[in-house]
Amino acid sequence: MSYKYILEPTSKKHVCPSCNKKRFVRYININAKEYLPEMYGRCDREANCSYHINPYTTGFEGEKTNVFSKLRTPDIDIQITFEGPSKLDCKQVMFTEIETFPDGRTGLPINYYSIFGLTDRLNKFRKAENNKHTNPAILKGVYREGTSGEFCINPIPLLFFDLDVKENENQTLLNKAVNDSVFQILMEISLLSWKSNSGKGIAGLLYVPQLGTITHNEKERHLKYAYAIYRKIEQYVYKYTSILIKLDNQQGKFRQIRYLAEQDTVRHINKEFRTISIEQIKSKRSYIPYEVLNDTLKSEYYNQNHFIQNLLSNVKFPLETKDIEKVISQYYLGTFLDQYMVGAATFPFIDGSNKIRAVQVKKFDKSNHTIATDYLHSLLKKGYNKSNEAYPSWLLKYDKNEKVISCLFGEHLLSKYPNNPVAIVEAPKTAIYGTLYYGFPESPEDLIWLAVYNKSSIKYDKLKVLKGREVLIFPDLSRDGSTFIEWQQKIKKMKIKMSGTRFIFSKLLEKWAPAEDRLEGFDIADYLIQMDWRSFRSHGKRKKALTTISMSSEECEKSEESNNTFFINQSSSTIETIKVEKIGIEENGNIPPQPLEKQYFNMEDLIALEARASQTITDSHLKKWVFSEIEKAKQTMPRLRTSPDLKSLFETVGGYKK
C-alpha cells in the first residue's frame, strides 16, 4: 500500500509542540513534497512525551484547493479582523451568577464578578456532584431583579464560545494531542478559556467591542454577529491546524447561561488576547446565473421529472400536455438529475427584475407528496465537494447572501400582468395546482398564483410588490387554526403600509376540513387534485355579484358568521365578510355554477370537500344548506322533484332520502 503522508525519512528534527525539545519528526506530503501543518508529527521522546498526531486518524484532507467549501461560512456579510493585544478593564463588574438547582431550573442573581473575579471563581470551584446544573451558572452582563434578557442593565463587549467534543460531534478532538493543539489556538485569541468537566470540551470568552452596544431589544442582531464570529474562528483554527471544528451556536444568544467546570489546572487571563472587530459590509445581492437555471430546463429531462409525470398520468384526473407545457414555461419549472434528488422538480424564485434569487429542489412520490427538499446551489456545492473541485465564482458570491428565499415564487409574472388579481399560497406546488385548475392569466380578471415559500415567509418585504392589487390568501391548515390566525395578524399590520391593496382571506378549508386533514397540514392543492380540473375551467370568467357586509375588525372576529361565509376581506380601512350568493335553480332543473368569492369556488367543490370530510355524516352544515336551498326551489317548481340532475346531486352529497 502506498501512503500519501509519511514521517520525514531523514535525520532532521524539529521542536516538539508538546515538550519543546528538538526531537520532533514531521509528516510530509510525498506528492507535493511539502510539510503538513506543524501539529502533525511524532516526538522521539516516547517515554517522556509521547506526542503523536497522525494525519490519517484525525481526518486531515490535505490540499486546500477548496478550503472554504469544507467550512461553514458566515450567514451575514460582515468583516471580522483579529486585532491586538487589546486593553480592557478587567476589574469592571461584567458577570452575574444565578441560583441553580439539580433539575436544571435557575433562580435569581446571587453574585456579581469582574473578569478577575470570574477567573478566581473558576479556579476555586470544586464540584460536589456529577451534575453540571449544580455548577456555577454565569450570565454575561449585569442583571438586576431577574434573569430574563430585559433585566440586563449593562450589556458587555464579550461573547461566550463553546466547543462540544463527543463521538458524534468534533470527534477528532477526542485525540488528546489534537485537542491540546486546538485549545492552544483558542487560548491565543480568547480573553479566558477553560476545559469542560470531561477535560475534552473547550469554552471561553471573546472580546467583541461592538457587542457591548447591543441590548436585549436587538437580540437578533447579537445572534447574527455571534454566528459570523464563530464561523470565522472555525476558519481560523482550520488555517493553522487543518482541523475542522464546529462551535455551538447556542452560546451566541444575548442571554445565554454558561456553566463553569472544575479545572485540572489553574486558568489565567490571557494578557495578549485579541480584539474581534465587526464591520458591516453593504454588498449587493448575488443571483443564480441564467445558464445554471437553463441546465434544469432541458426538454429531454422532463420524462424523468416525477412531479410532471405524476400530473400527466398518476393523478385521478390527468392534466393535458399543452397545459403542463404552458405551466412549465410560465414558472420555468425544471428537473434535477443528480445525487439523491434524481427526478426532482426545480422551482425557481424569480423576482420582478427577472433575477433568479433561488431555486428550490423538491422530490415527490407518486401522489406528488414531498419526500425530500433542498436548494439547487446547495446541491451544486455538494457535487463540487464530492469531486474536490473549487466553487465557481458566482457560487462563492451567492453563498454570502443573507437570505436564500427573498421574493415570491412567480413574482416575475407581476410585471407581465400588471392589473390581475393575485392568489397567495404557501408552497410553489400549490401555486402550480391553482394555475392548472383555475386557468392561466389570459385576461385582466384571471388570477396569478404566487407562493411565499413556507408558513413564516408571509412578510412585508415579500408582499409589498402586491401593493394596489386584489389579493386572495389561502393559508394552509393547522391543528388549531394557528396558521390562519398568524397570517391574518401579519396582514393586518402590512395593510397599513399598502394602501389601496385589498386582502381577501379564504375561510373555506378552516370551515370544512376534517380533523385528520388539519393534523396533516393540508392545503388547497390537496383538495384540488381530487377534483376534475375541467369542471373549474368550464365555469367561465369571474362574476361580480356579491353580497358584502362591512364591519370592524373586532366585530368580525367576534361574529358567528352564517355557514356560507368563506372569505374575509381585509381592506385598508375595514374587514369585510363576503358571502356566497344563494344557489339558483334554472327551470330546466339544472343547478348552474355559482360564484364563491367571484367564482373561485363552486358548489361542486364544496360537495367534494364535504364528502372528503366524511361519507357517513348526513346532517352536516353543508348538506343541510344544500337540501334547504333545493327544498325552497321545489316549492316553487314542483317538476324539479323528478329531475334526474337533482337526483344525481343527492347521490353525490349522500344521505338524502325522499
Task: Give the helices and strands, then pairings.
Elements: E1 5-7, E2 24-29, E3 34-35, E4 41-43, E5 52-53, E6 78-83, E7 95-100, E8 106-113, H1 115-124, E9 137-140, E10 142-143, E11 152-154, E12 158-163, H2 176-189, E13 192-195, E14 202-207, H3 219-241, E15 258-259, E16 275-280, H4 290-294, H5 306-314, H6 321-331, E17 334-336, E18 344-350, E19 356-364, E20 370-375, H7 376-386, H8 393-398, E21 422-425, H9 428-438, E22 448-451, H10 460-463, E23 470-473, H11 482-494, E24 502-506, H12 508-512, H13 515-520, H14 524-528, H15 533-537, E25 547-551, H16 553-558, E26 565-570, E27 575-579, H17 603-613, H18 621-636, H19 644-653
Parallel strand pairs: 21-22, 21-23, 23-24
Antiparallel strand pairs: 1-2, 2-3, 2-4, 4-5, 6-16, 7-8, 7-9, 9-15, 10-11, 12-14, 13-14, 17-18, 18-19, 19-20, 24-26, 25-27, 26-27
Helix pairs in contact: 2-3
Walk me through the structure.
By secondary structure, this protein is of the alpha+beta class. It contains 19 helices and 27 strands. The strands form seven sheets. It has a seven-stranded mixed sheet. α2 (176-189) packs across α3 (219-241). The longest helix is centred in the middle third of the chain and has 23 residues, at 219-241. It is globular and about 85 Å long. Mean pLDDT is 80; it is low at 63-69, 539-622 and 653-658.
Brief summary of the model shown:
This protein has 658 residues and is an alpha+beta fold. Helix 2 crosses helix 3.
The biggest sheet, with number of strands, parallel, antiparallel or mixed sense and barrel status, is:
7 strands, mixed
Low-confidence stretches: 63-69, 539-622, 653-658
Cα-atom radius of gyration? 32 Å
User: In percent, how helical is the residue content?
Assistant: 25-40%
Average pLDDT, all residues:
80
Strand content: 15-25%
**How many separate helices?**
19
Give the N-terminus to C-terminus distance in angstroms.
88 Å
Class per helix and strand makeup: alpha+beta
Q: Order of strands across the widest beta sheet? A: 22-21-23-24-26-27-25
